[in-house]
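quick one before i forget lol
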Amino acid sequence: RRRSDGGVMEIEGRIVFEGEQPVGFVTTYTDITDRLRNAETVRRVRDLMSDAVNFSPTYIWETGPDGHYTFAQGMEKILGRADDEVLGTERWKQFCTEHCGKPCVGSEVACQWLSPIRAHAVLERCTLITHSADGRPVWLSSSAQPVFDEGGCFNGYRGVDVDITELTLAQQELEQMALHDPMTGLANRRKFCSRYDLEVARQSGTGNPLALLLVDVDHFKSINDRLGHLVGDECLRRIANLLSSALRVTDLVGRFGGEEFMVLLSDTDPEEALQVAETLRRVVEASSLGTPEGDPLAITVSIGVAARPASDRRDFEQVLTEADRGVYAAKHAGRNCVCAGWNAPAEA
């Protein structure tokens, strides 16, 4: 019964017996206003939580102490899997971190990111990679709290995963634009110099030499003037592909602008660098490029080589200057050749 002041009374009546004979009636009035208000609050919170999950790129979940799902809500709209479909399956088996590079196989895999889970620690915005039911990669930001009973026994995790795939792909695209030449897709000067610094730091520990190659396209201005910039651009893309395909995966090719390319050779001594440069020169020379007139365009390059032994203390610009001297020497020698910058005169 609702009172005029808004309070709610629960009324319970019962007959009072003396032996088997009814002798009266007792009515109990209980104020359940707070109880109903609390129940309504709980209901509203659940509805709000449900709406938040249903209308946002998130899902909530719980696991038992064995890491298997005991509850999930909202997973289908993100991963394409029904909530009840994942119940009883192992949560951590489906994920990989953004730094791991390959799927994890079972919770026993020795991934560093599983260490806090094994320690029953709090997870805060851990970036995980999984795949949707249709095979699409999905990036998630996962936060979770370990759950313990009153005796301190670990009962599992309770957490929320936020879909950050769109944001992650946008960031990757921005990084690609910031660190790569838009025409050839090669590393730009910023990325190349950053990688060079890493190689120098590694060199100080290994004691191995490294080398730089400066590759300059011969008669490139003439190609642009005679055949147009579209052919010139295609020429640069062709050379970029030829250089990249002829090198080791540990080497790096970059474009600094114009018709100049840079190659960073790790763990390479001067003689090996000259051999690599000669191989690249021959690869480019053996190639040709189609033109609008139909006649194949022969392409050649002049390459300057610079060496940096482990004992060397020159910075990048100084090593680049040595490679540049090699290019000028190659140009003066008739082009389409390789010259060592350390043997070239400073005025070459």
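fyi Residues 98-110 have pLDDT under 50 and may be disordered.
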